[in-house]
Amino acid sequence: MTAPPDETRAAPRDPGLQPERTSLAWRRTFLALIVSDFLIWRAWTGSLAHHGGDIEGSSLGLGIGAAVAAAATVVLGGCILYRGASLRAAAAPPTLLVRTATTAIVALGAATVAAIVLGG
């Protein structure tokens, strides 16, 4: 048998601008999460001021929401740094990274909804 012609062999994959677009998307998402964190913290400090510094009622819920939002942002920041370091390989992200990032975003979304409900 003869070797297949060069046209049928798979050429190495050229990722093009995909890694850069992915990196920019992760950065935009992180920026949006930081803005959401600041809004939750602002609602919490406003609630503390309204209650005279006592942690009660909506202040407690907003405090928990602020803590969850901060933790979620730190976790997602770690995911972004890890993904940015491994982006050069142009491989799919590990499943654990995707699950961790998804959990962090869902937790931050829940904290944001709780801040809106408790702050309003």
Automatic annotation (TrEMBL):
Domain DUF202: 14-78
Membrane topology: Multi-pass membrane protein
Annotated spans, Disordered: 1-20
Superkingdom in the source lineage: Bacteria
Keywords of this entry: Membrane, Transmembrane, Transmembrane helix
The keyword Glycosyltransferase appears for this protein: no
Protein name: DUF202 domain-containing protein
Native source organism of the sequence: Sinomonas terricola
